[in-house]
Amino acid sequence: MSLLQSLHKATSTIPVVNTHCHHQESDFFKGMHLRRFLERSYVSWVAPVPEPESEAPLEKEWFERVRYNSYFLSLQKGLRTLYGIEEPLSVSTWDIYDRAIREAHTDTEWHLKILREQCRYQRIIQDSYWDPGSAPAGDLFVLAFRVNMFFFFHDLLVCDHNGNNALQVYDIGEPFPALSDYLVFLYDALKERKKDCVAFKCAIAYDRDLAFSDELSSDAGLCYSRLLSGNPKANDLRRVQNHIFFRMCEMAGDLEMPMQCHVGLGILDRTRAIHLLEIIEANSKTKFVLFHGSYPYLQDIYALCHNLQNVYADLCWLPLISPSAAERFVSEYIEVGGGNTLTWGCDTWCSEESLGALISAREVLCKVVAGKIQDGYFSEADGLDFLHGVFYDNAKTIYDL
Predict the structure, then answer these.
(1) Is residue 184 one of the residues assigned to a domain?
(2) Number of structural domains in the chain
(3) Which end of the chain, N or C, is more open, meaning fewer C-beta atoms within 10 Å of its C-beta?
(4) The model's pTM
(5) How far apart are alpha carbons 35 and 50 in whole angstroms?
(6) In 107-232, which residue ranges form alpha helices assigned H by DSSP?
């Protein structure tokens, strides 16, 4: 057995704490078929599935568009592993895959059995962005509370990219009269969610840039007042949001709740991780968990982890975006960031794709660790400890599980 094979065998026995997931409710999986499954996968970001709700096979042109894409190939790994299908997914094998998915999901617990038995997840940190702070039933899931809605507070009709607004979600009929009142409400809301959540999650990079600079309370209060008056200056909303996020991160530190941050891809206007430097430095008591390797700006994570003790990195999504980028990230992160600050989450909606993401992550990590062992960078025992940390130990420590 080769070193790489030995590492793969070892990682297959490690229980997994999946640190980031968007798993769908059980009703979604009733009557599941291949086309619906593809609609709710990352592959549809590359090539949207036409005619939603249709059950007809996709055309050859669609498969030509995705056949080399890493989202598609990772998803295919999960499906072939689960259903024992030797042939790749294509127009000619559509019915084989579709039939296997339909038959398996006649068991209404199948989507959870995959997570427990095939993926060996011990805990899944769930981010239900469509209903912040909720999760599918069962003790497998623990909660991350998405906080984007708190950046939208001055108008009942202005929502984040998920359609959420703090005033709507909390059934508050009108904006708070002063920013100080809103901040009291914000702290109480976050403190309440500490009872049933293990982290806060900020994905504001899909709504605005991450170049947050702190604002004086008095200045932010004036900006807020102008917003309520209907006669704001050009940057008033941005300045109030800046102030709110600084205070929110302070609150997270006070409540001892990690702040998970989506960095990298998003609106791509100053959404790289380095733009969070000021707010991370200002909140040394807060754990900042930076997602996705800040792809494509991988070096930002190394630099932040090198200089700051309250920065952690999560590999979620990166092996799906680009396995080769994930390999570069892990290799350099080992050297710069240390071994006990890296975690992994599937960042998917459906169980089959979650398994594919796990397989891809194992391939990336084992390949990098094998190379480090062969180069004499560390021992095989060190490599196994590192892998166990990424998939299990580090997350238990960071999120106090």
Answers:
(1) yes
(2) 2
(3) N
(4) 0.96
(5) 10
(6) 110-113, 166-169, 179-193, 217-229
